[in-house]
Design brief:
- With 358 residues, this protein is of the alpha/beta class.
- It contains twelve helices and 14 strands.
- Helix 1 (20-29) crosses helix 11 (335-351) and helix 6 runs parallel beside helix 8 (207-218).
- The longest helix has 17 residues, at 335-351.
- The radius of gyration is 20 Å and the shape is globular.
- It binds NADP nicotinamide-adenine-dinucleotide phosphate.
- NADP nicotinamide-adenine-dinucleotide phosphate is lined by residues 16-22, 42-43, 45-46, 74, 87-90, 92-93, 110-112, 154, 184-185, 187-188, 333-334, 337-338.
Length: 358
């Protein structure tokens, strides 16, 4: 399908529109060339209120037309759009997302509940667009008229984007990763201030398991028969919450089937544009990876907004005495790690003609 004409934008809904990720959807969709925000939903605490009254707006200007919208119940009989972005809290998503898919809607989900299902695409367009092929099996298995397509955990996406080109070139086999994750990753109101100000919390509930399993699925291939052939990589993750507003940092040591030198690894990272650069999707950054050679970068304060928040910044690529290569990657957890990732996935569905065809 070609891009929708100006004035002919596709109406979309945001489920969980009042939360931290939901608000990012509202901001990013305000000026989107293909999609028009038509409906917002949230919990029964918010349903029936105006969006202005229901959402504690976190930053920037709240668009007047969205402020005046009535927040709907998160139910396919109330929300009518075919394309729905889900920023629901996980327990609510586990119930609502299949209900929307059953009702013929395309759900672009930020929640963790379906990401690791064998028939659910876990997509980063630049890395593994072929996982959209799993939708055929999803339809057969579940008899949904619609579909669920997921984007990764906000730390896993940063890690997988940095490693995908190296995996293609050298074959990732082992990864040790330690993350320093921003407070906005915990939603709103999130981590109590007295727990995080001037502090580091070496635990984020369920995060290490998500990083380990999702990174492997993201780097996996889809066979000609439409099944996942899992990557042989083993991942060991340590997740830490740090007093940073936005931007998750991952420090990594990686071992490969073929050992690259740091210069070879840097050359591969610098030349990588991803698998969909020819589609020129509206939310694609010019370079999915920004490579820095400054010895004290990337830093969340300086680099989280690279590529409008859609680029991952990679630096400190050097030899590793335990494994082969050490590197640091950092990306915006709310934009590339959540709302922006979902919107990019929806753009891929439109560009590939899948949104209309299924
Ligand atoms: P949040 O700030 O806590 O927002 C949660 C949203 O879910 C709110 O709109 C809330 O509505 C709604 N909700 C809660 N219970 C509901 C129910 N029973 N029925 C309908 N709606 C309900 O969380 P968030 O950080 O935006 O995260 C949203 C989702 O994205 C989560 O699944 C999270 O794991 C995932 N995610 C977050 C990040 C991040 O960096 N923050 C990154 C990637 C993925 P009310 O306002 O009415 O309560």
């Amino acid at each position: 399908m070609s891009a929708p004409r100006a004035g002919d934008r596709i109406p979309v809904a945001v489920l969980g529109a009042t939360g931290a990720v939901g608000q990012a959807f509202v901001r990013l969709l305000a000026a989107h060339p293909w999609f028009r925000l038509a409906e917002v939903s949230a919990s029964e605490r918010s349903a029936g209120k105006s969006y202005r009254d229901a959402a504690r707006w976190l930053s920037g200007a709240l668009p007047d037309d969205v402020a005046a919208m009535t927040v709907l119940a998160t139910d396919p009989s109330a929300v009518r759009s075919t394309l729905v972005f889900s920023a629901l809290e996980a327990d609510a998503a586990a119930i609502a997302e299949p209900a929307f898919a059953r009702a013929g809607r395309f759900v672009l989900s930020n929640a963790s509940c379906f990401r690791m299902e064998q028939d659910v695409p876990l997509i980063i367009p630049e890395v593994n667009p072929e996982q959209l092929g799993l939708l055929v099996r999803q339809r057969e298995n579940r008899e949904w008229k619609g579909a669920i397509v997921t984007n990764p955990n906000c730390a896993a996406i940063v890690i997988a984007m940095a490693l995908a080109p190296l995996d293609r070139a050298f074959g990732l086999r082992k990864l040790f990763v330690s993350t320093m994750q921003a407070v906005s990753g915990a939603g709103y109101p999130g981590v109590p201030s007295l727990d995080i100000l001037g502090n580091v919390v070496p635990f984020i509930n369920k995060e290490e398991g998500k990083i380990e399993s999702e990174t492997v699925k993201l780097l996996s291939r889809v066979t000609a028969a439409g099944r996942l052939e899992m990557s042989p990589a083993t991942v060991s993750a340590h997740a830490n919450r740090v007093p940073v507003e936005h931007g998750h940092t991952a420090v990594m040591s990686a071992a490969f089937e073929t050992r690259p030198t740091p210069d070879e690894a840097l050359a591969v990272l610098e030349s990588w544009r991803g698998d969909v650069s020819e589609l020129a999707l509206p939310s694609s950054p010019a370079r999915p990876l920004v490579i820095t050679r400054e010895q004290d970068r990337p830093q969340p304060r300086r680099d989280a907004d690279a590529g409008g928040g859609m680029a991952v910044t990679v630096g400190r690529v050097r030899a590793d005495p335990l494994f082969d290569i050490r590197l640091v990657a950092m990306g915006h957890n709310i934009i590339r790690g959540a709302a922006g990732a979902s919107i990019l996935n929806a753009e891929l569905l439109v560009a590939r003609g899948i949104l209309r065809a299924m």
